[in-house]
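Private note to self, pasted from the team thread so I don't lose it. Backbone tokens:
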């Protein structure tokens, strides 16, 4: 079974790394939360998959947890907040839209991996708060980049803001602050849900075995 788990995780790594590869030729795409989280998850899954195959040490619980949380957020935001991708302007890898893989396939596969293949009851209660640290750094990166290079894209007409809720060409600083607080609360709630699910599941993986 360890080979199935290892290969499954390597497939996730392949999907993440292959379908974010368009950002290497279009660097402005790295400003998308989707591309950042999928790329980082790809690296962690590469580690986890190799560790499963050779009975090595798995990624730390905090690291695996934060990537699981943020890829879940990526999928939920894409489903509930973002408009559908335009096939005419979307990016493709191997003939498949990046949005399909990065917004749908990878989040679903990562949640399945967390539930079935991870060891559980490893999360500390304070992870719920430390997992939130990535979001402010991401926002700072977007806002500073937009200030320094206001026409750098990746959105239409060179708009540097990747998402409407932080687009200062369309909203005020006050609204931006409100949006940020709302998102942080939502992220904290999702982190709590992930923590509680981890606590509710058996300590040993439901399928396979893991070290670390």
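Design output:
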């Amino acid at each position: 079974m360890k080979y199935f788990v290892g290969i499954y995780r390597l497939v996730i790594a392949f999907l993440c790394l292959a379908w974010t590869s368009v950002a290497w030729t279009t660097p402005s795409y790295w400003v998308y939360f989707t591309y950042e989280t999928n790329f980082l998850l790809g690296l962690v899954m590469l580690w986890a998959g190799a560790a499963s195959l050779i009975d090595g040490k798995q990624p730390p619980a905090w690291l695996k947890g934060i990537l699981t949380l943020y890829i879940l957020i990526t999928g939920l935001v894409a489903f509930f907040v973002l408009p559908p991708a335009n096939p005419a302007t979307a990016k493709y890898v191997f003939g498949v839209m990046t949005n399909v893989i990065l917004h749908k396939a990878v989040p679903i596969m990562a949640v399945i991996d967390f539930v079935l293949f991870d060891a559980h009851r490893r999360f500390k209660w304070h992870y719920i708060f430390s997992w939130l640290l990535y979001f402010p750094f991401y926002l700072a990166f977007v806002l500073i980049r937009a200030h320094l290079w206001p026409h750098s894209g990746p959105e239409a007409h060179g708009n540097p803001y990747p998402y409407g809720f932080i687009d200062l060409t369309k909203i005020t600083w006050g609204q931006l602050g409100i949006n940020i607080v709302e998102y942080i609360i939502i992220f904290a709630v999702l982190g709590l849900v992930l923590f509680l699910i981890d606590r509710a599941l058996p300590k040993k993986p439901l399928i396979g075995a893991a070290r670390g």
